[in-house]
Amino acid sequence: MRTRAVAALAAALTALLLAPATPAAAHNALQSATPAQDARLTTAPTSVTLRFLQRLNPEFTTIVLSDADRRKVATGAPAVDGTAGTVTVDRPLANGTYTVAYRVVSADGHPVQGSYRFTVADPAAPTASTAAEPTAAGASADADGAASPVSAAGDLDDGPPVALVAGGLVAALAVAGAALLLLRRRRVP
Ligand SMILES: [Cu+2]
User: pTM of the full predicted structure?
Assistant: First the structure.
């Protein structure tokens, strides 16, 4: 009966070691943004506000605005209010496509980052230098500045660290090997 106990213990240990160390569901995520993702604005926005699932830590909240040439657009530092972060745009934005990139921290300390784009298409303003985008068709652009769900959210870390999983596997294999050895020894007279 002892061999069975050893085998059961090995199985239990293996299951324990292979179980994920932390749930990946506790991560922060972008809920909505103004301007919204893929919005086409007829008036250039003077600020960008991102709303998240969890409260933001002002020390670890980054919001970067860049133009079609990937040049950083001057903004103020992110102002954090609960789950929302806002940057004000220093100078009026020319027509063109802009990228909003963010990096925030989850409640469990894991970073989350992502980005999305919006377009400024003010009929009264000249088009920006190299922001060449075939958008002539839908000239009747509507100002969609309202907040709407944003889907493009990146996640830096899903699941337990690789080292932890590898270590757990090695330990599990060692336990299984020891159990096998014990079983064999008992069978051989
Ligand atoms: Cu996490």
Answer: 0.57
